[in-house]
Structure formats: structure tokens, C-alpha cells
Amino acid sequence: MVTQVDEGAVWPAQGDRPHAPAHPTNMPDNTADLEPRVRRIVTRWGHDPTALVQILREVQEEFDYLPAPALTLVARLLRIPYSRAKGVASFYSFLSDEPRGSYRVLFSDNITDRMAGSERLVDALCHRLWVEPGKVSEDGLVSVGHTSCTGMCDQGPAALVNGRAVPALTADRIEQIGDLILARTPMAEWPAELFAVTDHVRRSDILLGHSLQPGDAIRAALQRGTRGWSEHAANERSWREAYVGAAQGPIATLEEIKRSNLRGRGGAGFTTGIKWEACRHATGLARYVVCNADEGEPGTFKDRVLLTSHADLVFDGMTVAAYAIGASQGFLYLRGEYRYLLESLEATLERRRAANILGNGIAGQAGFDFDIRIHVGAGSYVCGEESALIESLEGKRGVPRNRPPYPVTNGYRQQPTIVNNVETLCAAALIAVHGGDWYRSLGTLKSSGTKILSVAGDVARPGLYEYPFGVTVRQVLDDCGATGTQAVQISGPSGVCIDATEFDRRIAFEDLSTAGAFTVFDASRDMFEVARNYAQFFAHESCGFCTPCRVGTSMLLAAMDKIHAGNGTQHELREMNRLNRVLLMSAHCGLGHTACNPILDTLKRFRPAYERKLRSLDFAPAFDLDGALDRARQMTGRDDAAAHLEPQP
Amino acid sequence: MNEPLPSFRIDGEECAFTPGQTVLQAALAAGRHIPHLCYHPEFRPHGSCKLCTVKVNGSHATSCTLPARAGLEVQSETAELNAERRMMVQLLFVEGNHFCPSCEKSGHCKLQAVAYDLGMTSPRFDHFFPDRPVDASHPELLLDFNRCILCELCVRASAEVDGKQVFALAGRGMGKHLVVNSQSGLLRDSDIAVTDKAAEVCPVGVILPKRVGFAVPVGQRRFDHRPISAQAGDFAPRTPGSRGS
Fold first, then answer.
1. Distance between CA A481 and CA A513 in Å, rounded?
2. Is B51 touching A (CB cutoff 8 A)?
3. Of the residues A168, A198, A228, the one at which a domain ends
4. Nearest Cβ partner of B48 from A397, A545, A558?
5. How many other CB atoms are found less than 10 A from the CB of residue B140?
6. Which of A168-182, A232-246, A616-630 has the lowest mean pLDDT?
7. Which chain B residues contact residue A400 at CB under 8 A?
8. B47 and A402 in contact by Cβ < 8 A?
9. End of a domain among A145, A177, A198?
């Protein structure tokens, strides 16, 4: 589903179209044998309604969209109302119940993509393919649109073609893609180098530089504590003693995690040991470990690299967590943008099962059963919020739950669940091996260990930089080759934007807390446009549950667009301040609370960037009489002076 | 002798509560008004309209979903909170198409009543003017989506009371909208009955019975003479089935 349409673009009259067929044909129909193909997918997921998101995603992969008969059949086979299937399908931006063409190109629309020239490339591709952004070509061949940051900020501009990541776009590559599409070359035959994604690890520390083998962390956890389960089985004298002994390994591991003072790397910074302990002590029928790889914050891409090159460490961390809390089922929630990693991740899981570090009786420990299922997201930033993520895992719309209760007591299927960031679980694996004291010796007093930063924007060497906590912003800027830096957006749009007077501040929970994004802007950048891009992001990603965020984020965007169009006044700045207060005060979740940060921060630090766009008067009407003629100009292909009410600048 | 009920303080006064109640439920049961729209006395609190946001021990919270606890210090009737609430009502007004003078629900409408009560005199923001076609397909019920505030009460009523799931939500963000559970998307093809709870629960004028328009003349309607804030007791929690509000 494409949501951003560039209304302002002027398109040549349709008659000029070079590749237009004489008569527009209908959409290509690939819905033959629909019923058995849908049945096959639903059967593979065991007719499980909680797998609805996965089923819909696979149905869409099968037919390029969700045909109404397929949606009906899915609902019938799962015994759920048709409207529920439709409600879920329409929530996720990668799912569409309308044909979007055989080729669907979605340009990543993060500010870093725009800084790297994505807008020109969108225009170039649209002209090449003779299609308007946001629309499907007449022959049903292709659509071109925008999507939120795809996590390729170090190698942008990037796009997704039929869900597949294509980074490092250039004019040449765009031409090549245009040719491939016009020649109707199947995606499988596209040159592999188009899809080549690079790790760009620029600075390694304990995590990115680890030398652990798959399963090392699990074996270390099992050996921790006085006696393991298997030893006990051999010489136990009573069931009671055996039970106590059995708990020692997990509790010893939990103690090390607590001793390490590890805090969540997803942004909130909750102490991991406390979360795990609360889950372990919660009563329930089962416990679950969820790895949050829904890395949606614009500007961050560290989890992509960890899952590409350190997947075993991630799975080791999940398995250690399962051991510590007593879980037998885990989920990796992989964001839809990283769908291309699915096959290699499944292969890693398979290797681990064969090596007995996943499955039943892990590492020879009778009773230590744990397996991992991968859930692929379908385009929703809110699902990075842990309770929304769980809703999505359960096959629902990704709307954050009312809390309390929290997931540690009422999570997946209302059972005790821990949701941890990819990087947190990697750190947990390291702690399982080297101990909590070792980990705590790194970083600062309140922020132990290291943090991976996703550095992008106006820098010579974008990529991943791992530092012990406490590093200054200035140090990072020096290391990545940033010059003439005006501002740094720390932790993405939901984080904080700082200017040059604050570059001696430190990356740490007690100062600049971050989930990892580190986006650099040099003096040539218009910080108003940065904030406007972020306002678009939040309006696009709001789940729509609560009034302030649903309407407020769109209202903020409307005000920013009005200023952008040259019609803004002090009135807009005042209204934005009021809207921000309402969002901060009453939004349902973190998205709404932080949606105003980019505007508040840039207004505070870069107010001139706003003010030079304002009209001098106090109020200007939102209705633009001349602008209302845009559509007429577009239809007639005219843009001369007589086609305007006011003289053009 | 019975133990006295525990209590918290709201705007400086003690408010007793039954354990299990939320702050809003306890306040309404005590006859104390906190503005709200998505809450209904017969349903589990939902927490989406955010109008009932209060200040609790210094930070903001949604009072309909916040469990009441002894000793809480709640602020609700403050100029600051009411200004924020007024703004949220204004956001709801510009999000949909609300033309009170021609609406059958005028005078019975909670959105309108809350807006009057909060002193809203203009919509303040630019209207979105969304395109929301009316569904008049059903012989007995009219669906006017223009007035929908997405409180989900009809969704909940149909699922929880009627056991039917006639309504659901689709889309997200500003694209979120109410849909009907039928292949055609039309109410005619759903299994709704005019006697369903879902047909009666709408706080605004989306779901209306046909051919009974203006049975109560304007001027004699529920909120025409008594502001909604003076009717708090009517919204005290009760079990489904005991109609009244």
C-alpha cells in the first residue's frame, strides 16, 4: 500500500507515452488455481489464526497482492470473520488488497535517502516507466511509491523491489532496474549485485569483534552454578533436591545478567536482569522469549548486520534467555524490510537443530527444550513497541496494548513473555560466557558494556561503530569523518536532535540515551526539511488507535507542509507547540509521545530554519486559490503564466 | 461490620472505590464527571479517545484504564487538562464530517455534548473533509461513517454482547475506518439486527434506526438542557442488558 503521493508533480500528457500499449490492458492475472494455493499456505501454518499475518504475507507473495477471494478463503479456513482478515491486511503497509503491479518498487524515504538524492531517482524511474508515484501503470506492470526507512542508511538511497532490498541506488542502477522491469525479467533472473548489501563494520569492540562459536554461550550458561541437570540425574537422592539443583544453572545465569547491569538496547533502557527475573517468577502455562528485530527507527541498521553476520550469537542469546526464564518457545520478529534474510536465518536455525543447540535436550541437557520460530513483519513501525509486537505475533493489528499488565506477566497468548532487542540478546550471550563483572567493567557506572551506533548522513565513512558507553558525540564524528557538522539526530526521530554546542555530550543512558541511530547533518542541510521528513514518518506510521496520535500527527504534518509551501505563519508554530503538548500528555504509546520530538528539538535549536519560511503576517489561510488550479494545469499539461492566478516566482 | 471502601483523592476530594474499578469508573460511580467518549458503562474500558486523561501523582494517565489504588492523588478539573481535552475534541471534529445542525443525533450526541461542556466554540483546525460514503443499504439501519469517532463501541458490542462481529476496524493512522463484516462491505449483507446492542451503542450519529428520525424534538433532547457533566451518575459502571443511557 503506497501512502505518499506527490500531488505536485507535473506529468506529460498520456498521449506522449512511449511504451503505452494501444489499449490499456487489464492487470495480469496470476490467480489461477487460487483455492489449492491458498489452502497449501493455510495448511502449512496449521490453520492457526494467530499466524494470520504470516499467512497473509505468504498469500501476497504468491499472488503479488491479496485478491478478495483469497482473503475470503483465508478467513473461512481460519474460522475468523472476513472483516478481521481485512482489518489485519489493511493495517500493514506491505499488504495490499488491490493489485499493485507485477513489479512493486518502494523507495526508502528516510531523510538520509533524500540527502543521497532519492527524489531525483524516483522521478527518473517514474519517467522511465511512465508511471506516477503512488499509482499503478496502466498496463498493470509496475507501481512506484515510498516506504519508511528500510535500514540501508549507510548505503542509500535504497528501495524495495517486490519486497527485496536494493541498496546503493544510482542513476545507472535506476536505468538498469527500469530496463529489467520493461523487459519483464523475472526477479530471480535479476543480477545478484543489485541485491548486494554490505555490513560496513567500521569499529568493533566486544560484540562485533567476538570470536565465540555457535553454542558457546549456551554451554557456558549450562556449566554455571554448582551442578547441572544431567549430573543431578545421575546421583539425585530425592526429587526435591533434584529440583533445586535444576534451578541453579538458570538462576546462576540470571544472576550474571543482573550483575552485568545490562540495559535494553532498543531505546527504553529497561534493566534486562529485572525483566527476565520478573518473567521467570510470573506464573503461567508457558513462557516465551521474543527477539525484537523490528528495527524500524529511521536511521538504525545495526540489527540487520547482527542478523546477517552474527545470527548464531543472537540465537545463542535467545537460548540463554530461555534457559534463564524457563521458556521452551522463542520468536524472532523480523521486520518485513529484512525479509531477504529469512532463508539464511532459517538455514542457521536448521544447522543449530542439527548441532543440538536448538530443539529438544539442548547440549545434552535432558529437559532443556527450546525452539525458535521466525515471524516476518509486514511494514509497521509501531510493531517495534513490545505489546504491539505481541499483538502482531498473535495475528492481529499491531496496536499497543493497555498496560499494565506488562508482557513479563501477560505477553504472548497472555503468558509471561520477555521481549528483547537483538543487540541486548547478543550482549546477554557474551555475559553468559564472560560473566557479569567483566561486562560491567566496560562503559560507565550507569551504562555498562558497549553500544553499536548506526552512523549515516553527512559522514565520510557511514556504517557501524561499536564503542564502550561514555563515548562523546565529538569522538564519533571524528572517527566517521564528519566535517562541518550542524546537527546530529541521536536515536532517530523519536530521539533527540543536538547542535554543535552539545557535541561533548556522551552516549550513555544517563546523558544521550539511544537505540543506535546516529544521523549526521552538515551545514548545508535545511533542518526544517529534516523535521518535516520525520513528521511525515510519524503520520504514516501512527497506528490510529488513540485520538491525539491519529489526528495529531497528521495535523502536525499539515502545519509543516503549510510552512514548507510558504504559507506558514507564527500561528502554525504556536499550534504545533499546543499539539505537541497534547501528544506528550495523552498519547497511548511511545510513538505518540515522541512524535513531536523532531519538531520541538529543531524549533528550539534551529528556529531560523523555520522562521525564514514564514510569511510575515500572523495568519494565512490554508486554502490556496492558485494551488487549487494545480489539477487543471496537470490535466491540460500547461504551466505557463496564464495558467496561474498569481505571478510565479 | 464492613470494612470501609478504600479511596483515592480526586481534585482534592476523597473518592471511594470498589477494588477492580478504574479511576474513571470509580469517579463516575461517585457522581463525578471526567470527560470521556470511548468509555461505556457496560463495557470494559478501552482507552483510545484519551479524553479522560488525568494527572495522577504528577504524571498523565488515561483514567478509564488506570486501576484505582488507595492514596492516588488525581487531578481532573483543571484549566490545563480541560484545554487539552478541548483540543482533542476539536481534532475529532475536523477528522470526520460533523454537521450538527443536520444530524439526527444532535442533542443526544456525546461528542457534541462533551464539546459544549468543554467550551468548544470553533473547530479551530483546518478540516480534513474525508470522503466517507454513507451506507443506506440496510432496510432498518443507516450507517453514516462521516460521524465516526472510532471509539470501537459498536465493534465491542457486536462481539461481546451480540456474539456476531458485525463491525471491525481497517486501515491505520488517519486511514483507520470502520468496516462491516460482509463480502460486499454493506450492512445489508451482514447479520446485524435492529435489536442488537451494536445498533444502539453508538455515542455519535453513525448507526441510526431508519424512519424514527426526530421522534424527540430538538430542544427536548438529553443534553439540550442538562450538560453531560451533570449526568455523570448515568455513566456509572453497570452490567450489559440494563439499558438506560
1. 22
2. yes
3. A198
4. A545
5. 15
6. A232-246
7. none
8. yes
9. A198
Q: Are residues A384 and A493 in the same domain?
A: no
Which one of B48, B172, B182 has the shortest CB-CB distance to A546?
B48
Give the global pTM.
0.91
Residue partners of A464: CB distance under 8 A and separation at least 6: A154, A199, A200, A201, A202, A203, A208, A301, A302, A305, A452, A453, A454, A455
Partner-chain residue, chosen from B50, B125, B126, that has the shortest CB–CB distance to A586: B50
- Once rounded to an integer, what is the mean pLDDT over residues A615-622? 67
CB A104 within 8 A of CB A65: no
More confident residue, A234 or B211: B211
Chain B nearest-CA distance from A375, in A, is: 21
The crossing angle, in degrees rounded to 10, of helices A547-564 and A570-586 is 160
* Residue with cell string 504472548: A412
Mark out chain A residues that contact chain B at CB-CB < 8 A: 3, 68, 72, 81-84, 86-87, 89-91, 93, 380, 397, 402, 404, 539-548, 550-555, 558, 575, 578-579, 581-582, 585-588, 622
State pLDDT tens for residues A561-588. Answer: 999 998 898 889 999 999 999 999 999 9
Q: Looking at the domain that runs over B7-77, which CATH code has it been given?
A: 3.10.20.740
Dihedral sign for Cα atoms in the order A211, A215, A217, A222: negative
Q: What is the ipTM of this complex?
A: 0.94
Q: Do A586 and B173 touch (CB under 8 A)?
A: no
Rounded CA gap, A463 and B190, in Å?
54
Residue A537: closest CA among A58, A148, A165: A148
